[in-house]
Write a structure and sequence with these properties.
The structure is a single chain. This protein is of the alpha+beta class. It has a 3-stranded mixed beta sheet with strand order 4-3-5, with no helix packed on it. A two-stranded antiparallel sheet has the order 1-2. α2 crosses α4.
C-alpha cells in the first residue's frame, strides 16, 4: 500500500498518517514476508535506526495496522504476540516454533489446509483462515542437548 492509499484508508477510520505509522509499516515491508516481530522488537529496531517512537505508540500502531489488515497479529505458543506483513497470497501458512530458543519458521502444507477445510465443512463452517503452530526443537537446540521438557525462553 502506497502512502496516499494508506493516508486515505486511515482518514476513513478517522485517523491520521503519522511518521511513526509510516515507519512501522516501512519496517515490515523492508524485512518482508515471513518475518515475525514482537512489539518490543519493532521498537528496538526503530530506536536502532534512530527513530524517536515510544513503545506505547508502537503497540497502538501495530494494533491499528492489524485491524486494517496491513499486518497480521499472531499468537505463537512459545513466542508470545508477533506481527507479520499481511498477504492474501501468503494467508494459509503455518509456523514451526522452537520451544528451546523461540525461533520461528514458516511452512505451507496443502494437506493441512485440506484438513482444515474438511473439518470446517463437516461442522457447517466456512473456512476463513487455516494456521497451525507446531511446537518443536530446532536443530541447534537438539545439538545442545535440550529435551524440550522445559522451555528456556
Amino acid at each position: 500500500m502506497q502512502a496516499t492509499e494508506l493516508r486515505t484508508s486511515l482518514h476513513g477510520r478517522g485517523q491520521r498518517l503519522t511518521p511513526q505509522r509510516q515507519k512501522v509499516l516501512a519496517l515490515f515491508k523492508r524485512i518482508g514476508e515471513g518475518s515475525h516481530l514482537s512489539a518490543e522488537e519493532v521498537h528496538q529496531r526503530l530506536l536502532g535506526a534512530e527513530e524517536k517512537v515510544s513503545l506505547a505508540t508502537v503497540y497502538r500502531t501495530l494494533r491499528l495496522l492489524s485491524a486494517m489488515e496491513l499486518l497480521r497479529e499472531l499468537e505463537l505458543p512459545e513466542g508470545g504476540r508477533r506481527f507479520e506483513l499481511f498477504s492474501d497470497t501468503h494467508r494459509d501458512h503455518h509456523h514451526l516454533v522452537c520451544i528451546g530458543c523461540g525461533r520461528t519458521e514458516e511452512f505451507e502444507s496443502a494437506p493441512v489446509l485440506t484438513a482444515g477445510e474438511q473439518a470446517a465443512s463437516a461442522q457447517g463452517f466456512r473456512l476463513i483462515e487455516c494456521v497451525l503452530n507446531v511446537r518443536a526443537l530446532c536443530r541447534n537446540c537438539q545439538d545442545r542437548g535440550e529435551s524440550g521438557a522445559q522451555s528456556s525462553f
